[in-house]
Amino acid sequence: MSASLLPLTLVVVGGWLIWWGLRRRGALEHLPQDWLRVVGTVVDAGDGTARPPRIEYVAPDGRRLRVPGPVTAPFALGDEIGVLIDPSDATRARLDLTAQEAARVIRLLLVTGGLMVVVGAVTALVLL
Fold first, then answer.
1. pTM (2 decimals)?
2. Mean pLDDT by 10 residues, the chain (128 residues)
3. Residue whose C-alpha is closest to residue 110's, from 12, 15, 10, 36
4. Which of 5, 11, 71, 96 is the most exposed place for a label (fewest CB within 10 A)?
């Protein structure tokens, strides 16, 4: 990569991280309060890079369904994980991550993105 493309890359990637963090923060405010909470079990731990872990849960009608977990999460087979289920459609589910964990990830996205934008802008000014 050319040295002149580095600042642009930093600004673009940093801006994207900020945008994504802000979107996630907005979604955090709209977490479903009426969804059912059940306990799911890790049935596939994933490979930590490309294949996400799979968490199996039992829907209110008795069907066994699966929801993917975060790729980089260190799950082990048999771990129990909270799952939120949409009461109108049991196939719509998400892991019941605490608001504190989600807020920490969002903060990390915003700080990392902000630092990348600042470093990219300063680097661009130095190279000019």
1. 0.55
2. 79 91 76 80 79 87 86 78 86 74 82 92 86
3. 15
4. 5
